[in-house]
């Protein structure tokens, strides 16, 4: 039901849309106000040969400007045992024999999409990683290199450039066996190649400890109150000259915040607790949730401890509470 002006009724009346005929009809006098209208909404009909196939897609995926044919090439489906099996199988074999210049790119883009989905990354990061890989591939200088490491490095750089950084350990966990060392080397290689292409250094984006805070806190199941305090504390810590990586600082701040709360978290699940009260109510350890080694968190904690009274928000912990923290 809608509202439109009827020339017979000489006023706005309610109209009814007849989907089968494509007509817009006045509900009061029955006059056809518009005929053969085009329905521009999605048409979810199934045109598959198999009766059990409920896939409604009949127009293919979106165009991809990174591919030679825009991603609109035709792929002959495998035979399903119905009539025409010989014809379709023969056409499929001939298609496979033909040279597809984008075959490698399509496989690489699928791998990047899989890694992005496993990390829960947005589409803009995936598209940026595809663009980076296409630029590197166009230079024809990546032959013989670890393909999984290259793709993982492209995703790492894309996360940095989109201001949604992920740690190398997080990227490594979905990189199909590529090690941190291989991904690091691939990242340096890509940055060098892109720099040679553009004639200027590649902008990677600055990493801040706060970029990881909410994700790390979520992994530990911390309360909103503690997350807010940790976020404010890590932002304040940037005012001091603490020469540690942002990830290490984030992990150390989380450790301090949890030690000042009732829901204390250990650095490691099997560690000897610094306080007798630390052994109760633990859901996960900080080292596992952040991917930072226990020793690194301890050293970062030592660097943060002299400034703890200025870093921790006063609304979260009093001076007396801060005295309960162990001296490093």
Topology overview:
Blueprint (H helix, E strand, L loop, with lengths): L1 E5 L4 E8 L4 E4 L5 E3 L50 H13 L5 H17 L3 H16 L8 H15 L6 H5 L7 H19 L11 H11 L3 H14 L8 H14 L26 H5 L3 H11 L3 H4 L7 H4 L6
Helix pairs in contact: 2-3, 3-4, 4-6, 7-8, 7-9, 8-9, 9-11
Subcellular location: Nucleus
Family: Belongs to the TFIIB family.
Protein name: TFIIB-type domain-containing protein
Walk me through what this model shows.
- It is a single chain.
- By secondary structure, the chain is of the alpha+beta class.
- The chain is 45% helix and 6% strand.
- The chain is built from 13 helices and four strands.
- The chain has a four-stranded antiparallel β-sheet with strand order 1-2-3-4, with no helix packed on it.
- Residues 270-283 have low confidence and may be disordered.
